[in-house]
Specification:
The chain has about 200 residues and is mainly α. α1 packs across α4, α6 packs across α10 and α9 runs antiparallel to α11. It is about 80% helix and about 0% strand. The chain folds into 2 domains: about 70 residues, Tetracycline Repressor, domain 2 (Orthogonal Bundle), CATH 1.10.357; about 120 residues, no CATH class. The longest helix has about 30 residues.
Amino acid sequence: MTRPYTMRRRAATQMQTRRRILDAALRLYESHGPADTTILAIAERAGVQRLTLYRHFEDERILLDAVWALWSAAHPFPDVGRVAGTVDPRQRVRDALEAAYGFYEGAAPFLLRATADRDRMPVLAELLAPYDAWLLELRRRLAEGWGASGRGREWIVALVGHALHVESWRSLVRDGGLAAGDAARVMSRAIADLARDPYA
């Protein structure tokens, strides 16, 4: 019985070490950004040697993939069909923005850094593809039903896209001091006002 017990204990220790590395990497990505985080810094924060880190993650891409998987599991994107299913476009925009801004409350630290670093780390563009697709689908649904056409519709689409982005959440909530629900109301009101009279 000694050998199976030893193997189980070793496996548990390895899992704990792996999780420490992932947690350390995520915290550093959130505070410094993936592009400015080194393997050495991650190893030091996790309390392991670089060789130990490389035993668990062969290269930086594999580590980044694992961190993204961990982050995604903790922060699933709000369901587009649920948050954008209301018929009335004004209520639909408000509901969707409240869901998006609530999501950003927990997801923003990593998401802000990752989107800012995507030009410096091309791999981030690939990892962020689900986020980009989520934004595009939400924007498409929220821009429907306003009765606008031509340039008026283009402006609505642009303003909806701006309102949905994590940078808008940061400007209104983190920097502007608004509650997430109030920020959603401000932006939904702006979109409704634009739709009411695009050429005012």
